[in-house]
Give the backbone structure.
Amino acid sequence: MSSETSIMKEQKIIPFLMFDKEAEEAIDYYASIFPDSTVSKREYYPNEIPGLGGKLMSATFKIAAQEFFVSNGGSHFSFSPGFSIFVRCETQEEIDKYWSELTKNGEEQPCGWVLDKYGMSWQIIPSVLHEYLQDADKEKADRVMKAMLQMTKIDIAGLNKAYQG
């Protein structure tokens, strides 16, 4: 059994990311950012295909045990902020690292969102945010929500301050 076949069987639902022509560059970039990333079997378009010849046709990669399938499909494919990759972080250092890497040649967006240089939307969010927003004390949760809405990159100290009042 090929490595791609076994990877595709490990996870029932796998996000499929369709790039214009930069899928290989993107997955190598993502794998360099996130620890324990792997890129599996790569398949390439035959050289005879106009615009895509020699480019990556498809590959699978894994970030933090989440599998993705990627392909280059041409310029009529693009990403939408309606789909994003959510990265749950435990520390401010982790947030800062992913934020710094993913905003290189990308775009910072409100409330912990990043649009990377390939057009993929990411949410770089601390685990504590969900906990605070789900707090039974509605006033605490509302203060945290208001604080978060004022942030671009999420600041855990700022969330803690809002939570504590």
